[in-house]
Every structure is written in C-alpha cells, then in structure tokens.
Amino acid sequence: MKPAKVLLLLPYPLHTAPSQRFRIEAYFPLIEQARIEIKTQSFLNEKAWSILYKKGSLLLKSIAVLKGFVKRLWAVIFLVHKYDFVLVHRETSPLGPPIFEWIIARVWKKKLVFDFDDAIWIPAISEQNKLALYLKCFWKTKWICKWSYRVAAGNQYLAGFAGEFNKNVIIIPTVVDTVKRYRSLVDQDVSRPAIGWTGSHSTMKYLDPLIPVLQQLEKEKEFDFYVISNKRPEFELRSLKFINWKEATEIEDLSKINIGIMPLEADRWSEGKCGFKIIQYLALGIPAVASPVGVNAKIIDNNQNGYLCQNENEWYKSISLLLDDRYLRKEMGREGREKIIREYSIQVNADLFLGLFK
Fold first, then answer.
1. What's 276's DSSP letter?
2. What are the residues facing 115 on neighbouring strands?
3. pLDDT tens across 81-93, in order?
4. Strand 150-153 relative to strand 111-116, pairing
5. Beta pairing class for 194-198 and 259-262
6. Residue-wise DSSP of 259-272
7. Average pLDDT of 252-270?
8. How many CB atoms within 10 Å of residue 344?
9. Is the dihedral of CA 205, 206, 209, 210 positive or negative?
10. Rounded Cα gap, residues 74 and 42, in angstroms
11. Nearest to 294 by CA among 166, 197, 174, 143
12. Alpha-carbon gap, residue 307 to 278, rounded angstroms
C-alpha cells in the first residue's frame, strides 16, 4: 500500500507551543518510521509568536495575522490537493469563520483530521488580546468537528463535545516520550526541596489562590518555589525563583522541582484541560498536587502518585507532607512515572495517532 501523504496545518511555529509540540511534533519520528510523508505549515512565524502575547504592538500583530492568512490561502489553493489527509491542530486560523476547513473538506473533499486539546468553543481571551474577542468565531469548532473525517480529542470531556457532531472521535491524551526525553527520576534526596509550577502566562492566574498557602509555608519551612514560564509572575514570594521557559532546557529545569502543582478553577474551560503539567511532573518522578478538576482526577490517583485538593487547608496539608518526607516523594514519584509509561507515553499511544491516517 502506498504511504499516506499528510499536510499538517499548525497554528504555531515548530518547537514553541506545548499543545502542538506534545500532541503533534512529538510523533514526527514515529511518522517517519511509518513512512508517512508529511509537510508542515504554521500560521504564525517565530517573530509573530514572540509578540503575540505582549501588550501593544497592534500594528505588528495585525501584519503577522495578515501574513498568516496569506500563507493559509496559498496552502489551500496550491498544496491541499496534493495530500491524502490534512491535519488541523485547533484551527486553521485564529480569527474568523472556518472557511479554510470548509474548502478542504467540502471543495477539495480531502480527509480532514481535527485535533484539539482545550474547550476552544468556549470564549476565553487573554487580557493582552481583548480585541480578538470580537474577531474570533468560537462557534466554528462544532463545524470543524462536523466536517472532519476523524477527530482526535485530548480527553473525555472534549470527546463528548465532538461526539455531538461526529461519530468518528478518538481520545488521544497529550503524551511525553518516556524513552528518549522524560527518561529519569528527579533527585528527591535534597536538603532543601522545591515546589514548582510550569505553564504559559495565560494560566498563571490559577496560582493566585495558592499564594496565601505558600506564604504560610514560607513561615514554617525552607523550600524554593520555581515558576517556569514565558513571563515572570507579578506576585512576590520570598521563595520565588523564576525560570524563563526554553525548550532546550525544559527537562533540566523541571528536574529542579520535587513537588509539582496544578491548581485550576472548577469551570467548563478547565474541564477541557488535558492535565499536561501533571503528566510532565509524574513522568520525571515528581509527585503532583492538583485541583480535582476534569482529567486531573483521572491522572492523579489520590494518595498514590499525588494529592487532589479542594481548599486551602488540603493544599497546605498535602504540600507540607511532601516537603517533610523525601521517602514519600520518592514512592509517589515512582508510582507516577509508572502510570505515565503505561497510559500517557508516546510509545503506548503511537498506534492511536498513526491510525488517524488510515
């Protein structure tokens, strides 16, 4: 059988955004092994990505988006017809209706594969880009699902939404490579343990309710609190250590953490989250403490590889226990890594992903 040819229409430059890196790019070596021919095209280039979430620069952002639309139009007219499948991660364009998806599926009649890992049909706009609220068409997600040959959803909640419009929905979790990248356990035999959080600036707001807990812990114990992100946090803590996120040092930076946290709000948007922070922590043997929202409660086995906390008192007790007991951190970390290898590794989910193109 002739190998499939797949065009990947991606929103971000390669090696930048976590969802794209771990849901799509991480499979590139396996795609190559399967002899599937691929071509990628990103809507945003690296320069546009670097200014997208900064305040101001409206003219530069507008030019960047316009260039993205021109690239997409060129791809739809001159590239799509050459491929058997077209995979769209999240959307073909960040603004406007799903015109490109409609042309791909209805005009060219190509097999459209749609992948998403957030509740992107729910309006959610960062403070830096409020104008986009009037330009984004959040309703388009259901139509992209409807027109797709297959839909890959990051969790059951997202699959439930997609299933209302498409019968061919597959749950593919966000995964890590536990053989080549996330391949070792962090050192828990340290005299000064570290709590840590990683994520983009847009999700940093979830840390705010935990600041009083961390401030109380600072009065009682010695620890460092690492924030690994693309933007320095605005809150102040005596224990705070900021690390500017870089792909090249991602594993090294995460390995400074002994306890990983993932607070969330209990709302529909958070239900769509795929728990990737937790997956990263556990893959490196870092026990996780998280809100029991959505898939978090599926990844964390409470009291085995981490803790699920609903209020400040539970957060305080859970983090305090882990700060005091290195053996507990070791055991929970070991349990966590074993679960990631079994359920959330690239190696285990490869057939599901490659099956999208059959």
1. H
2. 89, 152
3. 999 999 999 999 9
4. parallel
5. parallel
6. EEEE---SSHHHHT
7. 96
8. 24
9. negative
10. 12
11. 174
12. 11
SS3 of residue 43 by DSSP: coil
Bridge partners of 282? none
Helix, strand, or coil (residue 101): helix
Q: What is the CA radius of gyration of the chain?
A: 21
Contact predicate 285/182, CB 8 Å: no
The answer to whether the CB of 277 falls within 8 A of the CB of 270 is no
Domains present along the chain, CATH in parentheses = 5-172 (3.40.50.2000), 194-343 (3.40.50.2000)
**CB under 8 Å to 217, separation ≥6 — which residues?**
223, 316, 319, 320, 323
Tens digits of per-residue pLDDT, 281-320?
999 999 999 999 999 999 999 999 999 999 999 999 999 9
Distance CA 279, CA 87 (A): 24
Residue 105 structure tokens: 């599926």
135 — alpha (psi -120 to 50), left (phi > 0) or beta? alpha
Helix (H, G, I), strand (E, B) or coil at 312: helix
Q: Which residues on neighbouring strands pair with residue 240, listed in sequence order?
A: 225
Angle 346-354/326-343 helices, nearest 10 degrees?
20
pLDDT tens digit sequence for 23-45: 999 999 999 999 999 999 999 99
Contact 192, 224 (CB under 8 A): yes
The two structure tokens encoding residue 120? 């992107």
